[in-house]
């Protein structure tokens, strides 16, 4: 009986504490709770991947093609490597009611300096895909999504990026685009080992590329990317210096495989309009 009385007294004494614990938290306290102001993700990892795009109806009507079949565009050797193991790809995610413009999800992405992106090789091959919505090839010889050895078309090379930021908005887009790039890429875009192969004739056009502001040392990018009913739309007008455009430097330009032609500069290139990518 004494034990029951002690338990009752303890319960009565604890009741005010429990009530206090269940009171709503104030804004100051909530601001210290992880996730109150969105979600932050830091990626300290490298990435490797391949990509296969299956064209299930082939190239009907093209000169020299007597019987068209399913083909595949194959990208292999793609990777993203950070300059140091401590470098972080930062992603910040927030949701907003958007006011009168409507709700949206905001995703900010910040890339570290000297991020190396191996763009891999662009190849073409048999698809191993019977038709759209059909079956996949299960042959043990399938490498890169085909039943035959892929034919190399372009070595896309290795690209080194300076520190870069971009902002993605899903749902409504108060910034005006789904993806907005308004940044300065230090050192510009550098691509080494770029080559276009003539698989039938055996030669290649190869060069190292640097893309920077006209007369500058960095590349200014202020453009937008959207997915419209026409396809993927990439604005070209905001790439390079707003007044003088951009420079494309081709070092060690080689055509065919013999001696280099030399170094070539395309100076003051001004781009306008959009690049539109879609199926047909």
Helix run count: 2
SS elements, strand count: 18
Strand content: over 45%
What structural class do helix, strand and pairing data support?
A: mainly beta
**Helix-residue proportion:** under 10%
The main sheet orders its strands as: 1-4-5-10-11-14-15-18
**H/E element order:** HHEEEEEEEEEEEEEEEEEE
Low-confidence stretches: 2-23, 29-35, 138-147
The separation of the N and C termini measures 85 Å
- Largest β-sheet summary: 8 strands, antiparallel
Rg calculated over all Cα atoms: 28 Å
Shape: globular
Quaternary state of this entry equals single chain
Mean pLDDT rating: 81
Overall description:
This protein has 280 residues and is mostly beta strands. The chain contains 2 helices and 18 strands. An 8-stranded antiparallel beta sheet has the order 1-4-5-10-11-14-15-18, with no helix packed on it. Strand 10 and strand 11 form a beta hairpin. The longest helix is centred in the first third of the chain and has 20 residues. The radius of gyration is 28 Å and the shape is globular. The N terminus is likely disordered.
Keywords:
280 residues, mainly beta, eight-stranded antiparallel sheet, six-stranded antiparallel beta barrel, 2 helices, 18 strands, globular, disordered N terminus
